[in-house]
Amino acid sequence: MFLEIIRIICIFALLGMLFGAIPQAIYSTIDIDTEKYGWSSMLGIFILLFVLYRNKLQFSGWYKGKGREKLPKGFSNTLIISAAILLLLPPILYFLFN
Asked: Are the beta carbons of 5 and 63 closer than 8 angstroms?
């Protein structure tokens, strides 16, 4: 159980930094203030990582106990759509409020 928690922390930290750099770079090239509106893109990235972990990565780890099941399809789709909206939100907020 302890090794799986360490694995989850590493996955979210490493993949969060890696995937979080992509929208930050895109927003920087189109002069969007990432200090002000970048929080929503990072939240979207973490939601996508949560869906990825629950639907794929949890089955390849060390923990083999109870509670290992995929998210329901409808809930996964809702989370993915909300993450996409959060990823698209910084440019919209920037152009609305500036």
From this structure: no
